[in-house]
Amino acid sequence: MPSAEQYFTYTPVNVAPEICACVFFIVAIISITQVIRARSARWLFILAGTAIAESAGYVFRAVCISHASIGLYIAMTLLLLVSPNALALYNYRIVGVIARQSAVADARALMRPKFITRGFFISDVLSFLLQMAGGGMMAMESMAKTGKYICIFGLAIQLLFLSAFTWITIVVMRDRRYKVLAGPHNADGRSAKRRLFAVVLFTTILIFVRSIYRLIEFIDGYGGKIYGAEWAFYVFDMAMILAIFLSYVVVYVGHHFPRNKQQQQQNNEYLMHPYS
To answer: Using an 8 Å Cβ cutoff, are 91 and 200 in contact?
Structure first.
């Protein structure tokens, strides 16, 4: 029976994955509860779904430590490598919905609502598929090198579009024509906008840090110093992802994106007028 060291290239910590699995599962439950109680738009369940995928990834990691197998290792790798892409999609959707509802006329192609909602979605799916294919190939010795380059390409695409998205986010945040519906914790739409975009930019920076870490890890190669440093994985991957989830649990954005038609109509009427 193969040992965990054959796949991880080091002796992994035995308790940490179980703790992480429980923490991410709790985050998923909290997120689901927030969306249901606030009657927010259903696309906000993306956050909970991603937390469940993270939890499952750590479950596979825990099992793989004691009962190592290629199937468990591939499942763990794909879930922990690929599922965080949905967090970028979550941010894309937030800014895209704001741009679409505000209906601001902007000649720049990158600022068109369709590009923000669809273009970034396509880029995220492409990056997702490339990383998923590369991650699976890296778990097989005969295809590890090819898988490495595919993963690097997928992460490079993600970083490129994250850079463009950061610029768009700053433009939307600074432009008074883009409006956000006030929530129960905001005095008005202007303060709601500041609060919402603060968390979007903060979480985007964390996604950047995590993606750069993963990119350097793949460039260094399987079995390299970075891959073999388990502490780096927990600091630059797990901690970054957890901080993103906690940010969106503490600063819940669902109040700005109502589900029912009456709230949406009030939202649309509000967005037709400038901030007072």
So the answer is: yes
Q: What are phi and psi of 213, to 5 degrees?
A: -60, -45
Whether the pLDDT of residue 178 is over 70: the answer is: yes
- CB 102, CB 90: distance < 8 Å: no
In the chain, where the domains are located: 13-266
* pLDDT tens digits, 246-261: 999 999 999 889 886 5
User: What DSSP designation does 234 have?
Assistant: I
Indicate the residue type of 152.
I
Q: Is 183 helix (H, G, I), strand (E, B) or coil?
A: coil
- Residue 62, token pair as written in the block: 């825990």
Q: At the topology level of CATH, where does 13-266 sit?
A: Rhopdopsin 7-helix transmembrane proteins (1.20.1070)
Q: Distance between alpha carbon 132 and the CA centroid of its chain, in Å?
A: 15
3-state secondary structure of 40: strand
Residue 269 has pLDDT above 60, yes or no: no
Nearest to 39 by CA among 264, 269, 255: 255
Cα(113)–Cα(102) distance, integer angstroms: 9
Radius of gyration of the chain (CA): 20
The proportion of the chain whose per-residue pLDDT surpasses 90, expressed as a percent, equals 46
